[in-house]
Amino acid sequence: MLQKRGRDDRVVRVVRRGRTARVLCFRTVWTGVGDGEFFCPGCGGDRNYQRLTGRRRLTLLGVPILPRGVTGPVVECAACQSHFGTDVLDHPTTTRFSAMLRDAVHTVALAVLAAAGGTHTRLTLETAATGVRAAGFDDCTEDQLEALVEALAADTGRLFGPPCGPGLAIELHEALDPLAPHLAAPGRESILLQGARIALADGPYTPAERDVLGTVGAALTICGDDVTRLLAAARTPS
């Protein structure tokens, strides 16, 4: 296993004839126990990392004399060498975050289209496809969305049925729950408003569309009052 010598944590120095000498210090020796890719807060981008555990030692004149326990684990960025707590790995990489956002917008679009019970207009499909392409599915077409909604509808009622029934709610929560903690409020509101624009493309909200959008708001941790405010704002021409 790879071992790395760390910096001195605490140092006891003596001054003799104008010179400073290190007598006692605590030093940490790090051992690599894993690696991967993560979003580095220090670099502000995706980087490789090492997961490290450490053993602290008391040294006398640079010679280890006493073990002083273990420390860590920590995550070390391969680029900037900074150390972070392991909770930094909970944050998705930029690549993973982009995929999560793309899937969320796609799922919301399908859910709103499904709320129409298969009676969506061409304008509704065009609005949905435009939003999905903007999120990263560059090749998405209106016909593809329509075929997918029809296929899901035939899948033993996973989507259609009671307004935002259990199947549809599960689909939305699976796509939105992991994403919501990593989005600021404007980002979460943007996803809800995109769904609202799809619903309004062919006229006022139907009860089923309102129910779906309410579930979207809840999955994005937007409170009920804010959901009502945003849905009303989406109806007002800008």
3D architecture notes:
This protein is α+β, with helices and mostly antiparallel strands and 238 residues long. The chain is elongated. 42% of the residues lie in helices and 29% in strands. The protein has helices at 94-115, 122-135, 142-153, 166-176, 185-200, 207-219, 224-234, and strands at 3-16, 19-40, 45-60, 63-77, 83-84. The termini are far apart. It contains 7 helices and 5 strands, in the order βββββααααααα. A hairpin with a 5-residue loop joins strand 4 and strand 5. Helix 5 runs antiparallel to helix 6 (207-219) and helix 6 (207-219) crosses helix 7. Residues 11-18 have low confidence and may be disordered. Strands 1-2-3-4-5 form a 5-stranded antiparallel beta sheet, with no helix packed on it. The longest helix is centred in the middle third of the chain and has 22 residues, at 94-115.
